[in-house]
Amino acid sequence: MGALTDVPGVRVAHVTLGGAGDAVRTGVTCVLPAARDLLAAPVTAAVHVVNGYGKPVGLAQVAELGEIETPLVLTSTLAVGAAHEGVVRHLLARHPDLGRPDTVNPVVLECNDGRLNDQRALAVRAEHVAEAIGLAEGRRDGHPVEEGSVGAGHGMVAFGWKGGIGTSSAAVEDGVWRATLGALVLTNMGRPEDLVVHGSRVGMPDADGQGAAGQGPAGQGAAGQGSAKQDAAARQGDGPDTDDAPADGSVIVLLATDAPLDARQLGRLARRAQNGLARTGVVTDHGSGELVVAWTTAQPRHRRDGPWLRPWFTAVADVVEEAVLSSLRHASPVTGRNGLVVERCPWL
After folding, report:
1. What stretches of the chain adopt beta strand conformation (E)?
2. Extents of the domains making up the chain
3. Strand 165-173 relative to strand 43-52: parallel, antiparallel, unpaired?
4. Do 257 and 8 touch, CB atoms closer than 8 A?
5. Which one of 1.10.3210.10, 2.40.50.100, 3.60.70.12, 2.40.30.10 gives the CATH number of domain 4-190+246-342?
6. Is the keyword Phosphoprotein in the record (predicted)?
7. Which residues contact 219 (CB under 8 A, 6 or more apart)?
8. pLDDT, tens digit, for every residue of 192-226?
9. What pLDDT score does 205 carry?
10. Label partner for 326 (CA 20 to 30 A): which of 162, 202, 236, 253?
């Protein structure tokens, strides 16, 4: 179903960190909201917090002003500071007057990849963010986006399987405007039994302990207690990761369009992202950080809200659902901290 980069001007790049012999499984994903100097010409934007158990920076000003003026960076929780520094250093080099006295508002969003990644290593540094920004700037319109276990998604786990980066897009017609809506997600949430694929709860074990598709263990039962056999299988790479099996976690959703929506209308779209998440089985637990950022690359034009928004609301749910499933579909197995193996989801 396409990619976020189907929206003209949007660029995406990853820097993936870690290799054999260490326990670093992390990285940086950079999204350029538009192909222009954002500090001089910000994009119109909105923020929606589904559940606020997260450590992002920069969202308060976006919510207040309805603008994004920097590249967006996705990364690991304990790398937020380094990512912020990387964006600031990049912009200081481009704008000699920045900081004298005017400042800038980098937007950095995160998920906790500590199950697979040794976060104490603080592997992400400012130079990795600068590298990702440079790579994104070198991309062309409509470029493909690498998905799964890459960049910020390298160490992420979704529904007990390997999660990470997923993306999707759709063409939307509302009777007046025809434009593109794109989504990019960073998935790091849920238990195996939560997962729903196109309406089927595939992770729910049947009476024989098999998943809905009859392929191996489906992780923990509804009571939250997996069997020793399932735990062993997960560590050997034969089933989902059920080690402690936290249901909470985080999902970052980015929505972009080239329709001339205003900040308030973008906020209405952002709030519908929860519909797409719910379709995949995202419960939004106590310790979840589900955050949505939406923007347009176009100059907003006034149009009174009405039924014409319905195709947009429907498209938001569709592209977010597909992006979450795509993050699982394209992920590759990863062996991380303490030898934990998280496999690719077999249902996709």
Report:
1. 11-17, 26-32, 43-52, 67-68, 72-76, 107-111, 157-158, 161-162, 165-173, 178-188, 250-257, 289-296, 334-335, 341-342
2. 4-190+246-342
3. unpaired
4. no
5. 3.60.70.12
6. no
7. 160, 191, 192, 193, 203, 205, 226, 230, 234, 239, 240, 241, 242, 245
8. 999 999 999 997 665 444 554 444 333 332 223 23
9. 61
10. 236
Sequence-ordered alpha helix ranges (H) in the chain: 59-65, 80-94, 126-137, 228-235, 263-279, 310-329
Which one, of 248, 148, 108, lies nearest residue 191 by Cα? 248
Dist. CA 68–CA 85, nearest whole Å: 17
Residues 342 and 334: their CA atoms lie apart, in Å, by 6
Structure tokens at 328: 């699982």
Task: Please give the average per-residue pLDDT across 318-342, as a whole number.
Answer: 97
Q: Which amino acid is at 240?
A: P
Structure tokens at 193: 């039994």
CB neighbours of residue 137 within 10 Å: 14
